[in-house]
Amino acid sequence: MVIEEYDVHNLDCPDCGAKIEAEINNLEEVESANLDFINKHLTIEYIEKVDNPLKRLNAIASKIDPDVQFTLAGWEQERTKKKPWFIIVAILVLTFSLFLSSPFSLILGLIAYLIAGHRVIRKAVKEIASRQIFTENFLMTLATAGALYLGELIEASAVMILYEIGLYLESGAIAKSRKNLQALLALKPEKAHLKTENGVEDRKLNTIQKNQIILVYAGERIPLDGVVIKGESTVDTSTLTGEAIPVFVEPKSSVFAGFLNGSGILEIQVQNSEAESMVSRIIKLIENASAKKSDTEKFMTRFAKYYTPAVVLAAILVFVIPSLLGYAYKIWLQRALIFLVVSCPCALVISIPLTYYIGIGKSAKSGIIFKGSIYLDLLSRVKTLIFDKTGTLTTGELSIAEIKTVPDIDQEELKLSTWLCEWTSSHPFAKAVKKAFSYKFEPSKVDAFSEFPGKGILLVYNQDRYLCGSEVFLESFGFLNLLDAGDYSVVHTVKNDIYLGCISFVDELKPGMKEVLTELKQKGVKHLSVLSGDRIPKVEKVAKELGLDSFYAALTPESKLTKLEEIINSSQDMVAYCGDGLNDAPVLARADVGIAMGKIGAQASIETADVVLLNDKPEQLKNAFGISKETNKMVWQNIFLALSIKMLVMILGIAGLAQLWEAIIADVGVTLLVIFNSLRMMKNPDG
């Protein structure tokens, strides 16, 4: 597969964009194509490399909208929006014609019509030549031509003027929403202060390589991911995580591009290039999110294909049937023209992706990454929510509660053996062991090492064989009758086939988790559960404290996946799984919606999960559900507004209570209405 990206220029009609996308998807060499009308961007996945694709793409665009042009992504082209001076001239000419008598008023009125409608008429002619009939330009030309036939020259000119004003306002509103969100996501500076042999030099980010040293002064944004090697400060992480409380950093602290430095000066060793930085990956996810369309978007795209022909057919019937029955055909022709004016589905085609786009951008500002509008849609319908325990429901910051050895085994030997096993692991148990004990580890003495995620570790060190892990893990090697650790989480240790004992850990519930789960229940989540590899008493205790509906304990990663399959197959509702995105990637991938929580620096969580919460606060989970429900509500609100207003105009038209110019105002107005209605979401920070 070959993925190519293109910028789209001069595309003002969302319905035309949908048609261009459909035509490109029909090409044999194209696996999939996604045209993002909001961001004016086209992404194509080719089956194999194609020579000179731009020529073919521009030929397709020209058939549907002659002004549209594709260029390679990043190619500089003047994008300054031209002022619609021709509309102002048309208004002046039309106004002047009102004060003149015939034939001068007719001549000036026709000139005003041609000035206002020259772009629409030119596009309509080209579209007809390309056999594109049910287009907005053709229908507008046909409707105003009908008005001219009826002698309504002023109305025909006014309709063209109002239509062009509407296009200009729509384009401006969409551009404003795009700029607002791009400003929200402007997370990093363009240059960094690079430390060199000659001092400090300002360099562009794409020229700075891994392991080079950069300086970040007080009040500046950190430009690249890295590790602090000198200096202390507090950093504001809210642009990425949504967390308002500053975080203290010192040497060995990890920092990410987009963090805002406080009062100190930091020397940072760069860990990722600009393209590989966390913020670049997040922005890329947001930009690509439009490719993963929701079911509602897909349905409305299909609906739009049939909506215009259906309304045009209705217009024909409104004209033909009364005329055949002997009614005045001119009256019914005028009423039929109103149907043509409202036959374009632009309000529907633009409002839905725009609403999802705003929802995704708003979420990102809060430290919540939705990897597609489909997941905003699915999360709003989730009724069953399953959790991992450690690090998700609990803090994941374990501390040692108890050390128990079997008779004749020295406690120091148990501590050293467990420490050796856990030295290279990143599991929360390992972090607690390494924090509590300190011994000398020599990598050259490692003869063999195997980690079984969620189970345990096998280590051969200096010719001694160690096993560390859960009760189930050690039982699989034949070690039975292990020490009882009560309600605690536990790691059992074996050295040279001799069971030494166990170390127990305590893990606290996350503050606020119970309140968040209660609120989710009140807002529609029916069933809460937990899948854990921990012991039954410990998991049962957590489930009772949090008021979960069920729990499943002593599970291996494989049995977690099996249990989730059982839950999904037995449920009629959407099932979401919330975990850390590291040790339970298969479970996250299998759920209808996989949610990774609190792993800003974890590449695995970014790649595996459908929704990524960039801090581990329970409120983030509540906000993710809130934004998804708000977005879904706004989508259906816009659909109702667009269809109901169009239907009302048609009814008023049939009844003779609406004029052509009133219909165009209503049609343009409903498009602007749904755009500004969607923009209201940006004012409510928490959904």
UniProtKB/TrEMBL annotation:
Compartment(s): Cell membrane; Membrane
Source taxon at top rank: Bacteria
Entry GO CC: plasma membrane
Topology class, membrane: Multi-pass membrane protein
GO molecular function, one term: ATP binding
Keyword terms, alphabetized: ATP-binding, Cell membrane, Hydrolase, Membrane, Metal-binding, Nucleotide-binding, Transmembrane, Transmembrane helix
Enzyme Commission number: 7.2.2.12
Listed NCBIfam families: ATPase-IB_hvy, ATPase_P-type
Family: Belongs to the cation transport ATPase (P-type) (TC 3.A.3) family. Type IB subfamily.
Protein name: P-type Zn(2+) transporter
